[in-house]
Amino acid sequence: MTSPVSIFFDISLPNASTWFYFSLLLACALFFKFNRFLSFRNLDILSIFFFMPGFLLLLEGGHDDRIYFSWLLLSCLFWLVRCLLDLVLERRPAFKPNLNVPGMLLLAFAFYFSLVAVAVREPNLPDQRETRPQTPIDKIREHGEKIIENRGGAEVDVSKLRLWVERGLTLFCHLLIAVGLILVCWFHYDDYHLGFACATLYFLLPYTYLMMPYTGLKIGRWDHSWLMALMIWALVFHNKPIVSGILMGLSF
Q1: 38's torsion region: left (phi>0), alpha (psi -120 to 50) or beta?
Q2: Which end of the chain is less enclosed by CB atoms within 10 A, N or C?
Q3: Taking CA 220 as the corner, what is the angle to CA 215 and CA 221, rounded to the nearest 5 degrees?
Q4: How many CB atoms are located within 10 Å of the residue 234 CB?
């Protein structure tokens, strides 16, 4: 007989489309400048989600993948032009959210624990037959798996171990990125409110869910978020060139 309390822990995770629409609506509610609807700030908030149609179509599959990757490349091109345009702007759009710091902190923790729920509840296990480009990190991982198999014997399920380790590292990297964003805005711009806004928006984006290792998209890797964390913390230590250079070098 199941306990009646278990109903409160029977949580169904949203699919990628639901996560996308929910994130888009919440981002508009938190960061839109409603008194100036036609502004660069509002355009930037919307354009962050330009990649999602391509990702959703890739997740659906069954058609010509070149169309979906073309969409992703065009989105990258748009952001390249937007970043270059930002260099010539005399007045850049301010990024003050429509919520105070305690509210942003609450949302940031809520979204982060949503990622924890994804890491714990998502059932997809790594496919041993799945092939993807080998990197130095993959070679180190395979060497570690062989050591674990030799020492642990048949009792060790390498697939499940890899799942938990890679997703745990990804969650840790996401946390490092959020803390780094807060510190960058605090030290560079003397505005911790802006830092909490950036961290909340980062956790709010559906890409943090889709890029989790071994989700439906099957392109997430823990070292992707690790590289982002290194670059963010290189900015945190901008006044210490040696430390910043080491972190930036490791990221490349």
Answers
A1: beta
A2: N
A3: 130
A4: 21
Closest CA to 19 of 170, 172, 208: 208
pLDDT along the chain (252 residues), means of 10: 62 78 90 83 90 85 79 93 85 74 88 78 52 53 56 60 81 91 89 88 86 72 84 90 88 76
**How far is CA 82 from its chain centroid?**
21
DSSP character at residue 91:
S
CA distance linking residue 179 with residue 188, whole number of Å: 14
Matching residue, tokens 């395979």: 142
Would you state the pLDDT for residue 129? Answer: 43
3-class DSSP assignment, residue 5: helix
CA 177 distance to own-chain centroid: 9
Can you give the three-state secondary structure of 215-247, one letter per residue? CCCCCCCHHHHHHHHHHHHHHHCCCCHHHHHHH
Whole-number pLDDT of residue 128: 46
188's tokens: 């560079």
